C-alpha cells in the first residue's frame, strides 16, 4: 500500500479551502471556533495535515541558483544581479507555516479536556514543532538572524515590532523544537504502513543533522561562533539514525525518483512530499517531466565533470577517461549515478519522440537534460504523482562523513566504509580510502564534497553548500558551460556560442558576479522593513 497520508492531506486541503466531500460530514475548520474544534485526535490530525502542504514540491529548480543547472534565462541569484525585493514569497510562506504550527502547539492541549491522551497531544505538537523548525531553518539559511515568533500573535503583540534574533538564538530554537520532536514522535517502524508519510523520529533527527551541519561548516569557513558545537550535534544526530537501523539505501539510484521507489518498501526515504494514489486520484500534482523537457533546470558541464570514473579517479586523473567523440561516450566508464541523473541518447523520452537524442538546444541550453523524476507517461499526461523526496538516508550518511572530517580534519577508513563507500558501491565506483587518496594526490575534503555533489545532484543542495563552504565567490563567477558540441548530433538549427575547446558556452563569466560582502545573506524584503522599523536590513543590501 502506498501514499496512505495522501488521503489525509486531501482532507486537510478540503478543510482549509472550506470545501465539502462525499465522506466528510463535518464543517470546515475555518468555520469552527476553538472550543468546538480541538476535541478529538481527528481534529489534531486535520490541523496537522495542513502543515504538510508546505513541504517543498517538484520540480526542484533551486540548483539554478548555483553552477549545476541553468534554465532558459539568466538567474539573478546565481549571476549576482538581484536587488532587494519588495516582497519575498519564501519569507511570507515560512512565517505562515510558523503561525500554523504555533496555533497547533498552543491549541492542541485543549483536547486533553475531551479525553484525548497526553501522548496523542504530544505527538501532534511534535509534528508542529518539526514544521516550525522547518520554517525557521528555511529562513535561517537565507537571512541569518530573523524574528523568533513562538506564539500566535494578536494585532497589538509587541513581537510585531521586535528586532531580529541572533543566528545563535534562531538555531538553538530549531534544535529545541527538533529535540522535542525526536522525543515524542514514533519511529518509522512504529508508525507502520498505515501512516506512511507522516513525520517520524528519524525525520526530526535528519533535519537536525542538516541544520547543524549547515551552521557548523558555515561558522567554520566564515569564521564565527563555536563551529565544533554544531558539528558535534550534526554528527550525533546522523549517528543516531544510522544506529537506529530504520533506514538503508535503496538498491536502484534511478528508481528512487520514479514510482518504483515509493512507499515503505524504500527505506532510504525519510520524508517525502506525497502527490496522490494514482493518476485518477490526484489532488496535488506536479509536471516535472514537462518542466525539465522545457529546460527548467538543465545540468551543466560543472556537474557532469564532477562524476568519477569507475576506477574512483576524477576525469583529469583517470587513465580510463577519453575525450568523447559522440554524446554517449560522456557516460563511458563513469559512476552509474551520472546516467541515472542525466539523459543520454537511447533513454526513454517523450511521446512524440520516444527515444532521447541530443538534439534540442532551444530548450536545454546546456545540451544536458535532467533525468530525475522524468517519466514518459507523466509527460504525456501532463501531470505526475511521483512523490518528491525531501530527506533521504544518503544525505544522512554524507552529513556524518562531512561532520566527522570537519571536526577532526580527518576521517577513518571505517567511517568511510560506513558512509561514502556505501554510496560509491551503489554507483559501481571504486571505494575511497585514506591510502587511495594519498596515492593519487586527492584531497579527502574535496572527495567528501564531491560525493555530496553527485549523490544529491539536482535536488537543491548545491547552492547552499557553496554558501556554507564560502566558495560561492569562487564558483559562481565562473562561466556556465554545457556539453561538448557534437555537431553531427546537435545539428545547426539553433545557433550556439562555443568555447575555444568546442564546449557550449551558455553564460560568459563577464555576466556573472558574486559579492562576498553581501551575497552570503539574502536581503530582507523591503516591505518587512517598512512594517517593522526595528528590523534591520542585512549588510550592504
Automatic annotation (TrEMBL):
Origin: domain of life: Bacteria
SusD-like N-terminal domain mapped to chain residues: 87-212
Subcellular location: Cell outer membrane
RagB/SusD domain mapped to chain residues: 294-541
Keyword Cell membrane belongs to the record: no
Keyword field: Cell outer membrane, Membrane, Signal
Signal peptide positions (record): 1-22
PROSITE patterns: PROKAR_LIPOPROTEIN (PS51257)
InterPro entries assigned to the protein according to its UniProt record, in alphabetical order: SusD-like_N, SusD_RagB_dom, TPR-like_helical_dom_sf
Family recorded in the similarity comment: Belongs to the SusD family.
Name of the molecule in the record: RagB/SusD family nutrient uptake outer membrane protein
Organism of provenance: Flectobacillus roseus
Amino acid at each position: 500500500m502506498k501514499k496512505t497520508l495522501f488521503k489525509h492531506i486531501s482532507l486537510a486541503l478540503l478543510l482549509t479551502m472550506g470545501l465539502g466531500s462525499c465522506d466528510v460530514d463535518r464543517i470546515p475548520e475555518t468555520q469552527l471556533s476553538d472550543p468546538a474544534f480541538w476535541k478529538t485526535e481527528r481534529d489534531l490530525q486535520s490541523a496537522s495535515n495542513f502543515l504538510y502542504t508546505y513541504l517543498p514540491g517538484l520540480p526542484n529548480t533551486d540548483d539554478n541558483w548555483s553552477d549545476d543547472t541553468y534554465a532558459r534565462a539568466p538567474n539573478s541569484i546565481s549571476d549576482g544581479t538581484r536587488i532587494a525585493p519588495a516582497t519575498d514569497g519564501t519569507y511570507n510562506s515560512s512565517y505562515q507555516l510558523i503561525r500554523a504550527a504555533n496555533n497547533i502547539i498552543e491549541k492542541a492541549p485543549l483536547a486533553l479536556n475531551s479525553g484525548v491522551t497526553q501522548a496523542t497531544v504530544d505527538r501532534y505538537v511534535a509534528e508542529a514543532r518539526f514544521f516550525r523548525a522547518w520554517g525557521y531553518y528555511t529562513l535561517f539559511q537565507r537571512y541569518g538572524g530573523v524574528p523568533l515568533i513562538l506564539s500566535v500573535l494578536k494585532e497589538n503583540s509587541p513581537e510585531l515590532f521586535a528586532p531580529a534574533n541572533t543566528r545563535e538564538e534562531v538555531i538553538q530554537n530549531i534544535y529545541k523544537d527538533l529535540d522535542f520532536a525526536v522525543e515524542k514522535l514514533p519511529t518509522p517502524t512504529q508508525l507502520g504502513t498505515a501512516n506512511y508519510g507522516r513525520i517520524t523520529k528519524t525525520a526530526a533527527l535528519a533535519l537536525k543533522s542538516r541544520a547543524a551541519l549547515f551552521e557548523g561548516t558555515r561558522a567554520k569557513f566564515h569564521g564565527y561562533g563555536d563551529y565544533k558545537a554544531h558539528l558535534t550535534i550534526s554528527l550525533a544526530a546522523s549517528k543516531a539514525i544510522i544506529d537506529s537501523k530504520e533506514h538503508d539505501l535503496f538498491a536502484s539510484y534511478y528508481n528512487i525518483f520514479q514510482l518504483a521507489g515509493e512507499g515503505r518498501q524504500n527505506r532510504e526515504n525519510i520524508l517525502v512530499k506525497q502527490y496522490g494514489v494514482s493518476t485518477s486520484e490526484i489532488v496535488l500534482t506536479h509536471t516535472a517531466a514537462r518542466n525539465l523537457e522545457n529546460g527548467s533546470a538543465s545540468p551543466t558541464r560543472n556537474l557532469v565533470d564532477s562524476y568519477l570514473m569507475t576506477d574512483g579517479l576524477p576525469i583529469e586523473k583517470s587513465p580510463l577517461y577519453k575525450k568523447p567523440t559522440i554524446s554517449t561516450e560522456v557516460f563511458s566508464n563513469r559512476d552509474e549515478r551520472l546516467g541515472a541523473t542525466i539523459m543520454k541518447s537511447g533513454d526513454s523520452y517523450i511521446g512524440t519522440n520516444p527515444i532521447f537524442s541530443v538534439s534540442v538546444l532551444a530548450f536545454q541550453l546546456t545540451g544536458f537534460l535532467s533525468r530525475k523524476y522524468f517519466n514518459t507517461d507523466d509527460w504525456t499526461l501532463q501531470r505526475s504523482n511521483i512523490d518528491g523526496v525531501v530527506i533521504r538516508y544518503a544525505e544522512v550518511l554524507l552529513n556524518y562523513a562531512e561532520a566527522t572530517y570537519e571536526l577532526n580534519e580527518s576521517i577513518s577508513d571505517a567511517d568511510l566504509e560506513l558512509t561514502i563507500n556505501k554510496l560509491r558501491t551503489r554507483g559501481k565506483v571504486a571505494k575511497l580510502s585514506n591510502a587511495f587518496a594519498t596515492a593519487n594526490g586527492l584531497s579527502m575534503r574535496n572527495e567528501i564534497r564531491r560525493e555530496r555533489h553527485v549523490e544529491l545532484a539536482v535536488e537543491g543542495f548545491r547552492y547552499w553548500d557553496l554558501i556554507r563552504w564560502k566558495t560561492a565567490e569562487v564558483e559562481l563567477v565562473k562561466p556556465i558551460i554545457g556539453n561538448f558540441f557534437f555537431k553531427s548530433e546537435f545539428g545547426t538549427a539553433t545557433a550556439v556560442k562555443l568555447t575555444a575547446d568546442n564546449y557550449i558556452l551558455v553564460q560568459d563569466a563577464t555576466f556573472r558576479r558574486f559579492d562576498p560582502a553581501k551575497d552570503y545573506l539574502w536581503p530582507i524584503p523591503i516591505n518587512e522593513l517598512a512594517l517593522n522599523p526595528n528590523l534591520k536590513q542585512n549588510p550592504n543590501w
